[in-house]
Amino acid sequence: MDPRIRANGAELARLVREGFTGVATEGVEVRLELFRRPGASFSGRAYLDPPSRPRPAPGTRWLIRLQLPSVLRNRGYPRTYRYAGRTTAPWITVRDWRERLVALVAHEACHVRQFREGLRRSEIQAERWAALVLEGWTTPAIPGLLEQLEAG
């Protein structure tokens, strides 16, 4: 985690794990980096082949880079958004930065699942997956949700 991100590292690690619900984490490295543009929001990218710089940890097969603001606050929430330029993507509503992070991680984790299974990379499918993970995270009493997620 980039030390310029002022947040509880243990809480961020827990939220990243929650975002991986239904997706295996073996061989995945997740990096939390400071967003370079002031005032920018959350952003992420999953790599089929990790870049050589900076060097990934030994055993890394897939890399996820998450760019976060330096201060994680709940100003501007709740927020409803849709993946830019994709009119068939679902609208997702997040109530705070924690839900935003879980949805972002779930989106990128879906790409890792697509890479691992040799599937076509689909932003729409990743957003649908993120919405489903977020729904299960905010409403954990939904019967059979984990089975739905694992069935994909």
In short:
It is built from 4 helices and 5 strands; from the N terminus they run αβββββααα. By secondary structure, it is of the alpha+beta class. The longest helix is centred in the last third of the chain and has 21 residues, at 97-117.
Question: Which terms would index this structure?
Answer:
152 residues; alpha+beta; three-stranded mixed beta sheet; two-stranded antiparallel sheet; 4 helices; 5 strands; 36% helix; globular
Plain-language structure description:
There is one protein chain. By secondary structure, the chain is an alpha+beta fold. The chain has one domain (9-142). It has four helices and five strands, in the order αβββββααα. The protein has helices at 9-19, 97-117, 123-138, 145-151; strands at residues 28-34, 43-47, 62-68, 79-81, 92-94. A three-stranded mixed sheet has the order 1-3-2, covered by helices on one side. A two-stranded antiparallel sheet has the order 4-5. Helix 1 (9-19) crosses helix 2 and helix 2 packs across helix 3.
